[in-house]
From TrEMBL:
This is M23 family metallopeptidase. It comes from Streptomyces pratens. One of its GO terms (molecular function) is hydrolase activity. CDD domains: M23_peptidase. SUPFAM superfamilies: Duplicated hybrid motif (SSF51261).
Length: 277
Protein backbone atom coordinates (compact mmCIF):
# COMPACT_ATOMS: atom_id res chain seq x y z
CA UNK A 1 0.00 0.00 0.00
CA UNK A 2 1.39 3.40 -0.98
CA UNK A 3 1.85 6.17 1.56
CA UNK A 4 -0.62 8.30 -0.37
CA UNK A 5 -3.34 5.66 -0.16
CA UNK A 6 -2.64 5.04 3.53
CA UNK A 7 -2.96 8.77 4.25
CA UNK A 8 -6.25 8.83 2.35
CA UNK A 9 -7.63 5.91 4.35
CA UNK A 10 -6.56 7.50 7.67
CA UNK A 11 -8.08 10.84 6.65
CA UNK A 12 -11.36 9.17 5.69
CA UNK A 13 -11.40 7.12 8.91
CA UNK A 14 -10.90 10.22 11.08
CA UNK A 15 -13.80 11.96 9.35
CA UNK A 16 -15.99 8.90 9.90
CA UNK A 17 -14.97 8.81 13.57
CA UNK A 18 -16.03 12.44 13.91
CA UNK A 19 -19.55 11.65 12.67
CA UNK A 20 -19.82 8.59 14.92
CA UNK A 21 -18.78 10.61 17.98
CA UNK A 22 -21.25 13.40 17.21
CA UNK A 23 -24.11 10.90 16.91
CA UNK A 24 -23.01 8.96 20.01
CA UNK A 25 -22.66 12.11 22.09
CA UNK A 26 -26.17 13.21 21.11
CA UNK A 27 -27.64 9.83 22.09
CA UNK A 28 -25.50 8.91 25.10
CA UNK A 29 -23.86 10.55 28.07
CA UNK A 30 -20.22 9.89 27.24
CA UNK A 31 -18.86 11.82 30.20
CA UNK A 32 -16.52 14.24 28.42
CA UNK A 33 -16.90 17.78 27.01
CA UNK A 34 -18.75 17.94 23.68
CA UNK A 35 -15.90 19.77 21.97
CA UNK A 36 -13.68 16.68 22.27
CA UNK A 37 -15.81 15.21 19.51
CA UNK A 38 -14.07 17.53 17.05
CA UNK A 39 -10.62 16.05 17.72
CA UNK A 40 -10.79 13.53 14.81
CA UNK A 41 -11.89 16.14 12.26
CA UNK A 42 -9.17 18.56 13.41
CA UNK A 43 -6.57 15.81 13.03
CA UNK A 44 -7.95 14.86 9.60
CA UNK A 45 -7.55 18.34 8.16
CA UNK A 46 -4.26 18.94 9.99
CA UNK A 47 -2.95 15.99 7.94
CA UNK A 48 -3.99 17.78 4.75
CA UNK A 49 -2.26 21.02 5.77
CA UNK A 50 0.97 19.27 6.77
CA UNK A 51 1.04 17.17 3.61
CA UNK A 52 0.52 20.25 1.44
CA UNK A 53 3.14 22.34 3.28
CA UNK A 54 5.90 19.77 3.51
CA UNK A 55 5.15 17.65 0.47
CA UNK A 56 4.12 20.38 -1.94
CA UNK A 57 0.90 20.39 -3.90
CA UNK A 58 -0.10 16.74 -4.39
CA UNK A 59 0.10 16.90 -8.15
CA UNK A 60 2.68 19.61 -8.71
CA UNK A 61 5.10 17.10 -10.26
CA UNK A 62 2.61 16.53 -13.09
CA UNK A 63 1.68 20.17 -13.71
CA UNK A 64 4.71 20.83 -15.94
CA UNK A 65 4.38 17.54 -17.82
CA UNK A 66 3.41 17.67 -21.47
CA UNK A 67 -0.22 16.63 -21.97
CA UNK A 68 -0.79 13.08 -23.17
CA UNK A 69 -2.72 13.12 -26.45
CA UNK A 70 -5.51 10.57 -26.77
CA UNK A 71 -8.60 10.15 -28.92
CA UNK A 72 -11.86 11.68 -27.64
CA UNK A 73 -13.99 9.28 -25.55
CA UNK A 74 -17.26 10.38 -27.19
CA UNK A 75 -18.67 11.27 -30.58
CA UNK A 76 -21.06 14.03 -31.57
CA UNK A 77 -21.67 17.43 -29.99
CA UNK A 78 -20.81 17.83 -26.30
CA UNK A 79 -20.20 20.70 -23.89
CA UNK A 80 -17.40 20.91 -21.33
CA UNK A 81 -17.80 21.64 -17.63
CA UNK A 82 -15.19 21.87 -14.83
CA UNK A 83 -12.42 22.02 -17.39
CA UNK A 84 -8.68 22.03 -16.57
CA UNK A 85 -8.34 24.58 -19.38
CA UNK A 86 -9.86 27.12 -16.96
CA UNK A 87 -8.28 26.09 -13.65
CA UNK A 88 -6.41 23.32 -11.87
CA UNK A 89 -7.40 21.43 -9.92
CA UNK A 90 -10.41 21.49 -12.20
CA UNK A 91 -12.80 20.11 -9.57
CA UNK A 92 -11.32 22.10 -6.69
CA UNK A 93 -9.36 19.15 -5.28
CA UNK A 94 -6.42 16.88 -6.12
CA UNK A 95 -8.23 13.93 -4.49
CA UNK A 96 -8.91 10.81 -6.57
CA UNK A 97 -6.31 11.93 -9.13
CA UNK A 98 -8.71 14.46 -10.65
CA UNK A 99 -6.42 17.50 -10.91
CA UNK A 100 -6.82 17.62 -14.71
CA UNK A 101 -10.25 15.94 -14.93
CA UNK A 102 -13.05 17.20 -17.14
CA UNK A 103 -16.84 16.75 -17.16
CA UNK A 104 -18.74 16.74 -20.44
CA UNK A 105 -22.49 16.73 -21.18
CA UNK A 106 -24.13 15.81 -24.47
CA UNK A 107 -25.98 18.61 -26.26
CA UNK A 108 -26.77 17.57 -29.86
CA UNK A 109 -28.42 20.96 -30.47
CA UNK A 110 -28.51 24.09 -28.28
CA UNK A 111 -31.41 23.81 -25.83
CA UNK A 112 -31.81 20.03 -26.07
CA UNK A 113 -30.34 19.54 -22.60
CA UNK A 114 -32.67 20.48 -19.69
CA UNK A 115 -31.56 23.60 -17.88
CA UNK A 116 -31.06 24.27 -14.19
CA UNK A 117 -34.08 25.47 -12.19
CA UNK A 118 -34.05 27.33 -8.88
CA UNK A 119 -36.91 25.45 -7.25
CA UNK A 120 -38.88 23.17 -9.56
CA UNK A 121 -38.61 20.48 -10.71
CA UNK A 122 -36.45 19.27 -7.84
CA UNK A 123 -35.11 16.45 -10.02
CA UNK A 124 -35.55 15.00 -13.50
CA UNK A 125 -35.46 11.54 -14.99
CA UNK A 126 -32.19 10.63 -16.61
CA UNK A 127 -33.93 9.94 -19.90
CA UNK A 128 -34.49 13.70 -20.25
CA UNK A 129 -30.77 14.19 -20.85
CA UNK A 130 -29.16 13.39 -24.24
CA UNK A 131 -26.00 12.16 -22.52
CA UNK A 132 -27.77 9.30 -20.76
CA UNK A 133 -26.96 6.06 -22.58
CA UNK A 134 -24.52 7.65 -25.02
CA UNK A 135 -21.69 5.22 -25.98
CA UNK A 136 -18.23 5.86 -24.53
CA UNK A 137 -15.14 4.81 -26.45
CA UNK A 138 -11.60 3.71 -25.63
CA UNK A 139 -9.24 6.66 -26.11
CA UNK A 140 -6.31 4.40 -27.05
CA UNK A 141 -5.27 0.80 -27.45
CA UNK A 142 -5.23 -0.33 -23.84
CA UNK A 143 -5.84 -2.99 -21.20
CA UNK A 144 -8.77 -2.82 -18.80
CA UNK A 145 -7.51 -2.77 -15.20
CA UNK A 146 -10.72 -1.84 -13.40
CA UNK A 147 -14.40 -2.23 -14.32
CA UNK A 148 -16.96 -1.59 -11.58
CA UNK A 149 -20.67 -1.81 -12.40
CA UNK A 150 -22.76 -2.29 -9.25
CA UNK A 151 -24.43 1.05 -8.58
CA UNK A 152 -27.78 2.36 -9.70
CA UNK A 153 -28.33 5.55 -11.67
CA UNK A 154 -30.04 8.10 -9.44
CA UNK A 155 -32.24 10.95 -10.67
CA UNK A 156 -30.72 14.31 -11.60
CA UNK A 157 -30.23 17.15 -9.12
CA UNK A 158 -31.78 19.76 -11.40
CA UNK A 159 -32.66 22.47 -8.86
CA UNK A 160 -31.03 24.57 -6.16
CA UNK A 161 -32.45 22.36 -3.35
CA UNK A 162 -31.20 19.30 -5.25
CA UNK A 163 -27.69 20.71 -5.60
CA UNK A 164 -27.57 21.73 -1.93
CA UNK A 165 -28.63 18.23 -0.94
CA UNK A 166 -25.95 16.81 -3.25
CA UNK A 167 -23.15 19.00 -1.92
CA UNK A 168 -23.84 19.08 1.80
CA UNK A 169 -25.41 15.68 2.48
CA UNK A 170 -25.12 13.07 -0.25
CA UNK A 171 -21.70 14.20 -1.46
CA UNK A 172 -20.26 14.18 2.06
CA UNK A 173 -21.53 10.66 2.69
CA UNK A 174 -20.24 9.44 -0.67
CA UNK A 175 -16.80 10.86 0.06
CA UNK A 176 -16.68 8.81 3.25
CA UNK A 177 -17.50 5.71 1.17
CA UNK A 178 -14.43 6.35 -0.97
CA UNK A 179 -13.72 5.75 -4.65
CA UNK A 180 -16.86 3.81 -5.55
CA UNK A 181 -19.11 6.23 -3.68
CA UNK A 182 -17.70 9.20 -5.57
CA UNK A 183 -17.05 7.71 -9.02
CA UNK A 184 -20.00 5.35 -9.18
CA UNK A 185 -19.71 2.80 -11.96
CA UNK A 186 -16.33 3.33 -13.61
CA UNK A 187 -13.69 1.89 -15.93
CA UNK A 188 -9.92 2.37 -15.79
CA UNK A 189 -7.69 1.67 -18.81
CA UNK A 190 -3.93 1.10 -18.75
CA UNK A 191 -2.62 3.10 -21.72
CA UNK A 192 0.99 2.12 -21.05
CA UNK A 193 3.91 4.25 -19.92
CA UNK A 194 2.42 4.77 -16.46
CA UNK A 195 -0.71 6.48 -17.79
CA UNK A 196 -4.26 5.40 -16.93
CA UNK A 197 -7.59 6.70 -18.25
CA UNK A 198 -10.62 6.87 -15.95
CA UNK A 199 -14.27 7.00 -17.07
CA UNK A 200 -16.71 7.70 -14.21
CA UNK A 201 -20.49 7.89 -13.52
CA UNK A 202 -21.27 5.15 -16.05
CA UNK A 203 -24.75 3.77 -16.65
CA UNK A 204 -25.68 0.79 -14.54
CA UNK A 205 -25.37 -2.49 -16.44
CA UNK A 206 -23.76 -0.87 -19.49
CA UNK A 207 -20.09 -1.83 -19.07
CA UNK A 208 -19.07 -4.15 -21.91
CA UNK A 209 -15.52 -5.00 -20.74
CA UNK A 210 -13.94 -6.86 -17.86
CA UNK A 211 -10.63 -6.53 -16.04
CA UNK A 212 -7.85 -7.97 -18.18
CA UNK A 213 -9.58 -7.33 -21.52
CA UNK A 214 -7.63 -5.71 -24.35
CA UNK A 215 -9.38 -2.92 -26.23
CA UNK A 216 -8.62 -0.92 -29.36
CA UNK A 217 -9.07 2.80 -29.79
CA UNK A 218 -12.74 3.51 -30.55
CA UNK A 219 -14.10 0.33 -28.92
CA UNK A 220 -17.28 0.88 -26.90
CA UNK A 221 -16.58 0.44 -23.18
CA UNK A 222 -19.86 1.49 -21.57
CA UNK A 223 -22.65 4.05 -21.72
CA UNK A 224 -22.82 7.46 -20.10
CA UNK A 225 -24.83 7.39 -16.88
CA UNK A 226 -25.60 9.15 -13.61
CA UNK A 227 -24.12 6.94 -10.88
CA UNK A 228 -21.95 8.11 -8.00
CA UNK A 229 -21.47 11.75 -6.99
CA UNK A 230 -23.16 13.21 -10.06
CA UNK A 231 -25.77 15.93 -10.52
CA UNK A 232 -26.87 14.86 -14.02
CA UNK A 233 -25.91 12.30 -16.67
CA UNK A 234 -22.40 13.15 -17.86
CA UNK A 235 -18.95 11.70 -18.40
CA UNK A 236 -16.14 12.46 -15.96
CA UNK A 237 -12.84 11.75 -17.73
CA UNK A 238 -9.25 12.02 -16.51
CA UNK A 239 -5.75 10.67 -16.93
CA UNK A 240 -3.71 9.63 -13.89
CA UNK A 241 -0.46 7.87 -12.95
CA UNK A 242 -1.94 4.95 -10.97
CA UNK A 243 -4.91 2.62 -11.53
CA UNK A 244 -6.16 3.27 -7.98
CA UNK A 245 -7.71 6.78 -7.75
CA UNK A 246 -6.94 6.84 -4.01
CA UNK A 247 -3.21 6.72 -4.84
CA UNK A 248 -3.19 8.48 -8.19
CA UNK A 249 -1.88 11.87 -9.25
CA UNK A 250 -3.46 13.63 -12.18
CA UNK A 251 -1.87 13.85 -15.63
CA UNK A 252 -2.82 16.55 -18.20
CA UNK A 253 -4.42 15.39 -21.46
CA UNK A 254 -5.37 16.58 -24.92
CA UNK A 255 -8.05 15.10 -27.15
CA UNK A 256 -6.80 14.57 -30.67
CA UNK A 257 -8.31 17.12 -33.05
CA UNK A 258 -10.07 18.94 -30.19
CA UNK A 259 -7.55 19.89 -27.52
CA UNK A 260 -8.99 20.72 -24.11
CA UNK A 261 -12.34 22.55 -24.38
CA UNK A 262 -12.97 25.32 -21.87
CA UNK A 263 -15.93 25.56 -19.51
CA UNK A 264 -19.22 25.84 -21.43
CA UNK A 265 -17.42 25.38 -24.73
CA UNK A 266 -19.25 23.12 -27.17
CA UNK A 267 -17.16 20.79 -29.32
CA UNK A 268 -17.82 18.24 -32.02
CA UNK A 269 -16.08 14.89 -31.66
CA UNK A 270 -15.77 12.69 -34.76
CA UNK A 271 -17.33 9.27 -34.79
CA UNK A 272 -15.15 6.43 -33.57
CA UNK A 273 -14.98 5.09 -37.12
CA UNK A 274 -13.67 8.35 -38.60
CA UNK A 275 -11.39 9.39 -35.74
CA UNK A 276 -7.68 9.37 -36.76
CA UNK A 277 -5.59 6.60 -35.21
Amino acid sequence: MSGRKLATIVHRSLRSAFLVLIIAHAALDLGYPWWWNFAPIVLAYAMVVVAHRWGGAPDSTKASREPVEVAPPVSGRWTAQNSPADRTPSHGTHAYGQTFAIDIVAEPEPGTRPGFRRLWPLARRNSAYPAFGAPLHAVADARVVRATDRQRDHSSRASLPGVLYQVFLEGAVRDLLGVRGILGNHVVLDLGGGTYALYAHLKSGSITVREGDRVRVGDVLAACGNSGNSTEPHLHFQLMDDPDPDSARGIPFRWRGIGVPRDREAFEAPSAQSAPA
